[in-house]
């Protein structure tokens, strides 16, 4: 089950899902409707959109916070958790609290003043760095503002302890490597690897992402 980063549409995973092949059943988690959804609503929408039985979570960016709640609410269904340049707060923390100072203060102020949709120029320069112009235009056109609670709500104190991995993006203009490494530690990732892309590796190098997912799943004890 793929969990997209904040504001990002399901189609960003299309090439990765095709590369994984028909032998690997996949889905992209749904998001709740409306601008007042809480973090738990995001997690429950993801759980409800998954097929019956167990599944591995592949969480990107802010999807890491949702994935942490999914794993807490339905631990018996989550077989593995791979974070891709994902924000993983400490148990009891939030997306905002996972950011270093002063970034967390700036982020909180910006959300209060301007909401959760960055200007087009910021999306193009940061989130879409590394993808071609046509794809960047599509990302900007399809970007959907999220509920502020996705960023501010705290995860539960108890964390999930199954098979975990972290795929870092080495040319990321959104999450610096130092922050990604800290998130990998927070996750307790026993499997770690890097790709030489920006923040959207599923669009910049979908084959490398699909190969990393396969290696991660094959390495399960």
Automatic annotation (TrEMBL):
GO terms for molecular function: hydrolase activity. InterPro entries: AB_hydrolase_1, AB_hydrolase_fold, Sec-Metab_Biosynth_Hydrolase. Keywords: Hydrolase. Residues 2-212 form the AB hydrolase-1 domain. It comes from the Bacteria. Transmembrane segments: none annotated. This is Alpha/beta hydrolase family protein.
